[in-house]
TrEMBL record:
Residues 15-70 form the HTH cro/C1-type domain. Keywords: DNA-binding. This is Helix-turn-helix domain-containing protein. It comes from Teretinema zuelzerae. One of its GO terms (cellular component) is cytosol.
Length: 110
């Protein structure tokens, strides 16, 4: 059976969790995003849905990825998902470092 999701509520709950993890008040977040305190509160309470632009502002202000706002409680072991994400980020950073070394070697051999 397919699960029915209230996306506004999911986004609002996740926004609250992420904001609290960053130890920010709604007012702090409002200041960082340029969105009104009422709007932030309405998103968190599932009364309003955010625009793409607001999602971008929230990601920047909270140093979060867009997918984090859409995670549901039925995802098994969310902590493990975050650990995997950290490992993937480290691997990407390591790969970028290796690639940049090879690019520098190629530039120096010309």
């Amino acid at each position: 059976m397919k699960q029915s999701y209230n996306v506004k509520q999911i986004v609002g709950n996740n926004l609250r969790k992420i904001r609290n993890r960053r130890k920010l008040s709604q007012l702090d977040l409002s200041d960082r995003t340029g969105r009104s305190l009422t709007y932030i509160n309405n998103i968190e309470n599932g009364k309003k849905f955010l625009s793409e632009k607001t999602l971008q502002l929230l990601c920047t202000a909270l140093e979060a990825y867009p997918f984090e706002f859409f995670l549901t409680d039925d995802i098994p072991n969310l902590d493990q998902a975050y650990e995997i994400q950290k490992e993937q980020e480290k691997m990407l950073n390591d790969l970028n470092e290796v690639l940049s070394r090879y690019q520098r070697k190629g530039e120096n051999s010309d």
